[in-house]
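Sequence, please.
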């Protein structure tokens, strides 16, 4: 086997390995990722109701188009009326 073939084979295995790791993540729905973020939700004391007039829809981290939050990657179940301790008022 030539050095070029070894290098190409090595690159193929690296890319293939990375793809195998990424596939389960890509295939997950927002619901599954939401479940994955349960520990983050708990850590940030996420709740689905506002607190002291503060809610996700007025937070800088809220992504309204996807019902997401920059702190909960892939999670699409952050409700506009929700709240967590990382709340940051939109400017
Ligand atoms: S940081 Fe907290 S309050 Fe702000 S959008 Fe995300 S979950 Fe809602």
């Amino acid at each position: 086997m030539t050095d070029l073939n070894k290098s190409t084979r090595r690159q193929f295995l690296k890319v293939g390995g990375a793809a195998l790791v990424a596939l389960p993540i890509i295939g997950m729905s927002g619901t599954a990722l939401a479940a994955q973020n349960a520990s983050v939700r708990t850590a940030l004391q996420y709740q689905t109701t506002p607190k002291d007039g503060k809610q996700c829809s007025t937070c800088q981290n809220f992504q309204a188009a996807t019902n997401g939050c920059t702190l909960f990657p892939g999670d699409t179940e952050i409700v506009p009326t929700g709240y967590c301790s990382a709340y940051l008022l939109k400017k």
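The chain is about 40% helix and 5% strand.
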